Amino acid sequence: MRPAITPAFVLFVLFVVAASLLPLGFDPRGHVLRVAAMALLFAATAQAWNIVGGLANRISLGHAGFFGIGAYSSTLLYLRLGVSPWIGLLAGAALAAIAAALLSLPTVRLQGHYFALATLAFAQVLQVIANSWPGLTGGPLGLSIPFAGSQPLKFSFRTVSSYYWIILALLVVSCAVFHLLATGAIGYRLRAVRENEQAAEAAGVDTARVKLIASVVSAALTAACGTVFAQFTYYFDPDSIFSLPGISVRMAMIVIVGGLGTLGGPIVGALFLIPLEEASNAVLSSKAAGLSQFAFATILMAAILIQPRGMMALWPKRWSAGAKLTVERTSR
């Protein structure tokens, strides 16, 4: 038996190679590269959300909470105790995993909009806490990370290209984790939960266990993205992190526009939406109040109406079967 590489796998490898070479063609401190890095970062974040929202169809509106746990924990460890953000990244991922496990206790049996509202409440509670403890979290003013020059051990670099390659590596890790879950036993059980949870339980699937695993893994990856976001932007505040129109909705929209439950969906969705949002703000924000948001929302609605199943559904059928980068087993 030997693995046969699907066309989608080849395209993914080519994408990673092309993306890794992109900084060579642009100013390493330029705006274009910064937008590209932010698109890849949100692709990684959306991929983490896709584990819960795509595979199990559990629409979470509170993933910004895990994102914020990663950003705040790593930043506070660095600012207060001098702990390297690399270690803070692992600490934030662990804290988010614990938070996800605790959150799953009362929500594991919730479905549909009940689950969405419960996760939204989780993020809102964290927003209130962050705003109410200025001595610890900086309160509404947020936290600023001082620039430390070129010190890789402190996650500090002079060029955007250095952050870009780290973010690309994070995206590859997120995609690898999603692929392993989606093509393994847990992925099949999550899809069974997505189709009919009662039937899955009747078939012997421990639905509570597989949903818990998906939530914990998704939360840990999301927190890692939050740490990288904090180090990349050097500043964040509770409203920009935890508010509903911010991170949580952006994750969901990227996956929905790209394609729920597919490995390529978050990448395609992020590469479409993030530059589009940046372009609309740059061109239209000075014309009239709210015009850029209106134009962005209009294009977004048009994209969803044209293809409700996401942009990955536009792929040829012979490639869409391998959209999750499945490695098929064939005989020699």
Helices, strands, pairings?
Blueprint: E1 2-4, H1 7-21, H2 31-55, H3 63-81, H4 85-107, H5 112-132, H6 134-137, E2 143-144, H7 160-183, H8 185-195, H9 197-202, H10 207-233, E3 235-236, H11 238-242, H12 247-258, H13 265-284, H14 291-306, H15 317-320, E4 328-330
Antiparallel strand pairs: 1-4, 2-3
Helix pairs in contact: 2-7, 2-10, 2-12, 2-13, 3-4, 3-5, 3-10, 4-10, 7-8, 7-10, 8-10, 12-13, 13-14
Task: Provide structural commentary.
By secondary structure, this protein is mostly helical. The protein has a single domain, classed as ABC transporter involved in vitamin B12 uptake, BtuC, CATH 1.10.3470. Helix content is 70%, strand content 3%. The protein contains 15 helices and four strands. The strands form two sheets. It has a two-stranded antiparallel sheet. Strands 2-3 form a two-stranded antiparallel sheet. Helix 2 packs antiparallel against helix 10 and helix 3 packs antiparallel against helix 4. The longest helix is centred in the middle third of the chain and has 27 residues. The C terminus is likely disordered.
Key features?
332 residues, mainly alpha, ABC transporter involved in vitamin B12 uptake, BtuC, two-stranded antiparallel sheet, 15 helices, 4 strands, 70% helix, globular
